[in-house]
Design brief:
CATH superfamily of the largest domain: Phosphorylase Kinase, domain 1
Number of domains: 2
CATH topology of the largest domain: Phosphorylase Kinase, domain 1
Distance between the termini: 24 Å
Shape: globular
Strand order of the largest sheet: 4-5-6-8-7
Order of helices and strands: EEEEEEHEEEHHEEEEE
Helix content: 10-25%
Radius of gyration: 17 Å
Low-confidence stretches: 179-196
Structural class: alpha+beta
CATH class of the largest domain: Alpha Beta
Length: about 200
């Protein structure tokens, strides 16, 4: 890992899941977590706070104008959402000051341990109480998102994440936004990796 002096914030580079990451030195790679059509996610230790976080790199986020608008809309929505059942953005990592081109976007989010897909297919038996609790948490998150006139367009078991406390958070916000009921939906094609 090579550290580079870039003004007030020091950055370092490393490779994970075939991608070159350039993030502040306060973030130390733990391991790759997952990847999807638009990005790679790693788990990282935030040395300034002592907490583990997920960092998602969206490579060449501005190559396609339509995708760039969708990514921006998604980031704006996720920054506004403050609910325990909706995954949140903790930070957006700015590019290094020495960077001449700004191509990649780095999003720092809560690190989640697993998803509902892995829970369902695990060897641990699920009781009716488990299922009721999962459904309750999912509906709470959906109610919050829908109260903002936003629809989740990619709700599936791999996009419902959990911590050790089994608090579900909805991720992979393929959001659509409308100002009127049954109005025209602007579908976002930006998909977070399966495991955020």
């Amino acid at each position: 890992m090579a550290a580079a002096a870039t003004g007030p914030t020091q950055y370092h580079q490393f490779r994970a899941s075939g991608q070159q990451f350039e993030v502040p030195v306060k973030y130390q790679l733990i391991r790759p977590v997952g990847h999807g059509a638009y990005g790679v996610v790693i788990s990282s230790q935030d040395n300034s706070s002592g907490r583990k976080v997920a960092i998602k790199k969206i490579k060449r986020a501005f190559d396609d104008r339509v995708d760039a608008k969708r990514i921006l809309r998604e980031i704006k929505l996720m920054k506004k959402f403050v609910h325990e059942n909706v995954i949140r953005i903790l930070d957006l990592i700015p590019p290094p000051l020495t960077s001449e081109e700004f191509e990649d976007v780095y999003i720092v989010q809560d690190l989640m341990e697993t998803d509902l897909h892995r829970i369902i297919y695990s060897r641990q038996p699920l009781t009716i109480d488990h299922i009721q609790y999962f459904v309750y948490q999912i509906l709470r998150g959906l109610k919050y998102i829908h109260s903002a006139n936003v629809l989740h367009r990619d709700l599936k078991v791999a996009n419902i994440l959990f911590t050790h406390m089994y608090c579900s958070l909805l991720c992979s916000h393929l959001f659509s936004h409308t100002n009127k009921p049954f109005g025209f939906f602007l579908a976002s094609l930006y998909s977070l990796p399966t495991c955020c």
